[in-house]
Design goal:
- It contains 8 helices and no strands.
- The protein is mainly alpha-helical.
- The chain folds into 2 domains: about 50 residues, no CATH class; about 170 residues, no CATH class.
- The relative contact order is 0.14.
Length: about 240
């Protein structure tokens, strides 16, 4: 059985063992925005025994299984993010808005909380869509330029750290909204009188949360540190 070291950060755990993402989420551990927290620290915050938790995580690790995104270079990772997570969100966000509007119109008398759920979801969508656009039109072209540069590029915004700092703040904001959405839906638990559309909507919201967590993890804990290091290396080489 693979050994899990409780001193490893949550981000490093998911980078090395992507299949642990769902296990960390199930325990309420934030491996994306909170990826620099160690497993031991995360366990302490939840009142869990870190040694026992590490053993439980090790038991679900599949030997020899790796995800391609864990070894991609910066440009490959950017293209992966666009084709996988951005494409998913551009398609899924409008679909979930329609589903939510439908179940609100049918079930709101018995479930007035749906109005709060719909409002929170629309905040998530309003945050994510312009965020995706900024990444595709500003940050990712900078990453591509940086990857082929022989010396540190002169970006219009200065260092690539500046747009990254904006992205990090926006990741934190949408992460908080997703926490609130989970609370409002009682963990996406379907009520006894929930119809097929209700189930499809809550299933979709749960999938959106999981995909967004992994999306943010790949950027916060892989792409951003990688491109910052690339820029620093080019800057130091030109001195």
């Amino acid at each position: 059985m693979t050994r899990i070291d409780p001193t490893m950060t949550l981000g490093a755990l998911v980078n090395s063992r992507p299949e642990l993402a769902r296990e960390l989420e199930r325990r309420g551990f934030d491996y994306c925005c909170g990826g620099t927290q160690t497993l031991a620290e995360a366990c302490a915050s939840k009142g869990l025994d870190s040694t026992l938790t590490a053993s439980e995580l090790a038991a679900v690790v599949t030997a020899g299984v790796t995800e391609p995104w864990t070894t991609m270079d910066a440009v490959e990772l950017v293209e992966h993010l666009i084709s996988t997570h951005h494409h998913y969100l551009w398609t899924e966000l409008p679909r979930l808005s329609v589903l939510l509007a439908k179940i609100v119109s049918v079930h709101d008398e018995r479930h007035p909380e749906l109005h709060l759920i719909a409002a929170c979801y629309e905040e998530v969508r309003a945050d994510l869509e312009p965020h995706l656009t900024r990444e595709e039109q500003v940050l990712f072209p900078m990453v591509r330029e940086l990857a082929t540069a022989q010396s540190a590029p002169s970006f219009h915004c200065g260092s690539i750290c500046n747009p990254i700092s904006v992205m990090l703040r926006e990741h934190d904001a949408v992460g908080e909204l997703l926490v609130h959405l989970r609370e409002l839906t009682d963990g996406y638990r379907l009520p006894a009188d929930g119809c097929a559309s209700y189930e499809a909507c809550f299933t979709g919201l749960a999938e959106l949360e999981a995909d967004t967590h992994l999306h943010i993890h790949k950027e916060n804990n892989l792409l951003f540190p990688m491109v910052i290091a690339m820029e620093n290396e080019l800057s130091n080489a030109s001195k």
